[in-house]
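Progress report, Aim 2. The chain analyzed during this reporting quarter is listed below.
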Amino acid sequence: MKPVLFRFAFTDKELMRFEADHLPHFYDKLHLHPELQITLILKSEGTFIAGDYIGSFKPGDIFIIGSNLPHVMRNTDAYFEGKKNMRAESLSLFTNEQLFQDQFLNYKETQVLKKFLDRAKFGLKVEGDTKTMLTSLMWKLKTATGFDKFMQLFEILKLLSESKTTRVLNKHLNAEAYSEKEGKRMMDVFQFTFNESHRVITIDEVASIAHMSTTAFCRYFKTHTRKTYIEFLNEIRINNACMMLQKEDAAVTEVCYQVGFNNLSNFNRAFKK
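Predicted structure tokens for the chain:
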């Protein structure tokens, strides 16, 4: 799969790019970029996919997305209905890829930073005291200029390089090469699953979305995601259930059927797993 490749138009004089997003919903296409990304979620919720990781995101979460890690933050369906009171907001920092050339990372003093960047390639979620401190630094960076901006950037990198409370999201890095056609195919499968996970889905049906035979699709999906399609589908459903159970005063049995499971036993088994 070759997800959409983003290229940030850094000038020769920029070390980083800072973005404050205020949108109806976040960009919902699988994509990647060579820059390190640090994102603080301010408003909205949904499903976060990074590599083979699937989980939820909510206000206050901070994610670190390493160089060329395919990812997407897909808001819940309500954010696609055009309601004016539903907004997705975040603060994001993108570093210029030229900042971390090999020569810079070969110095003795930068070895701790090199180790952090290697971990970031697997995707990280920031937790604990680091999350509190990083949130404050991201807000300060929003208004920083000139040399203060430079100092804020390296204060953030120092904090993350020394932190003991960043959680790795992926167990593996998928080194499979993806073509443009395969990228669209996988995104079609993801989009179909996001939209239809509340109902019964057959493997034959989703294979037809990918324009493949059932056998070929099963092999293809497992190769590129390191999980079966049913495992992926259940992760999406359980993630939706978790968000519903945290927000709504709904019975577990009701949530079970709303997210797409056909009986409570299967739901309980998948939830515990």
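The chain is about 45% helix and 20% strand. The longest helix spans residues 229-247. These observations will guide the mutagenesis work planned for the next reporting period.
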